[in-house]
Amino acid sequence: MLLQVLRRTLVFLVSLALASVVVFAFMAVLPGDPARVALGVNATEEAVQATRERFGTDRPLVVQYLDWVGGLPSGDFGRSYVSGAGIGPQVLDRLQVTLWLVLTAMVLALLVALPLGVVAAVRHRDAAGAAVSALSQVGVAVPSFLAGILLVTVFAVRLGWLPSSGWVPPAEDPGEFLRRLVLPALSLGLVQGAVLTRYVRSAVLDVLREDYVRTARAKGLGPYGALVRHGLRNAAIPVVTVLGLQLATLLVGAVVVERVFVIPGLGSLLLDGVGNRDLLLVQGVVMVLVLAVLLVNYVVDLLYAVLDPRLRRAA
After folding, report:
1. What CDD domains does the record point to (predicted)?
2. For residue 77, is pLDDT > 60?
């Protein structure tokens, strides 16, 4: 087990280092001069050169990369080309908002997908199983931003039960925070819950066809009892894989949903940076998103060994 953890940790660190090189190189080859963008097209060459020296963009790319990546462990992402403010505090502040949204949506997706997926598998020959499968297919076809618009139309515009946009920190007003979190979390969570329901159904169906489950049924256990006692752990392995992918999808999907609901998260910060051509800010936000995706994959790899003892023995 320890050897497997060390191996996965090494893979994670190497992947993170390669990702930092790719992100920096991608931003470096984009057209445009940050100094000229900051000063405008009418700026003199002397002013542009002075701004380049202040930004540090006149140095060799290798030096710029080493300076940038050296500050990442301490949260120093540099300073914005547009506002001059530190990027690290902005990213940290917006990251908290995005994490509230993504984690709440993931919990909602699990609460929807696990029971419905099990019912759809155990009763796949009944009307209830067919109905769950049909609803999940419809949910898969609906993008999260469209689900958000529909939820706003129904619950905010017509019924007036919930606010349509905005954000309140939980420490400021917990009640209002929850009211403003409901619709964006539902728009992300319900769509991902529909996707996850399909995978849970497939994984549970595969387990129900195994010999050990049929033996448990022959000994007198019902379908749900045999599944709970002997099948769920095996069915969890492919589901955990999909959960890791869905967390990454939620991070990307949050970019659009934050715009729909005017939420000041990482997605809004990223789009603002792109609109202002603040490349260093965009670079920092993209690196944080990449780190989050790699970290999720790292945790999923470790969970494999926890769920499946055969992997520990093989290691």
Report:
1. TM_PBP2 (cd06261)
2. yes
Is the pLDDT assigned to residue 311 strictly greater than 60? no
- How many CB atoms are located within 10 Å of the residue 284 CB? 28
| Per-residue pLDDT at 118 exceeds 70 | yes
CB 251 within 8 A of CB 98: yes
The pLDDT of residue 273? 80
Q: List, by residue range, all CATH 1.10.3720.10 domains of the chain.
A: 88-308
Q: Are 280 and 77 in contact (CB under 8 A)?
A: yes
Cβ 263 vs Cβ 188: under 8 Å: no
Which pLDDT score is estimated for 309? Answer: 57
Higher pLDDT, 177 or 206: 177
Work out the pLDDT band at 179, boundaries 50, 70, 90.
confident
Query: What does pLDDT average to over the chain?
Result: 78
Q: Is 160 left (phi over 0), alpha (psi -120 to 50) or beta?
A: left
88-308: CATH class = mainly alpha
Structure tokens at 250: 């939620």
> Which residues fall within 8 angstroms of residue 125, CB to CB, at 6 or more apart?
none
* CA atoms within 13 A of residue 246's CA, in its CB half-sphere: 29
Which residues, other chains included, contact 97 with Cβ-Cβ below 8 Å and sequence gap of 6+? 167, 258, 263, 264, 265, 266
Alpha carbon distance 201, 31 (integer Å): 47
Task: Say how far apart CA 120 and CA 290 lie, in whole Å.
Answer: 34
pTM above the 0.90 mark?
Answer: no
Q: Are 48 and 81 in contact (CB under 8 A)?
A: no
pLDDT given for residue 39 in this prediction: 66
> What one-character DSSP code corresponds to residue 220?
T
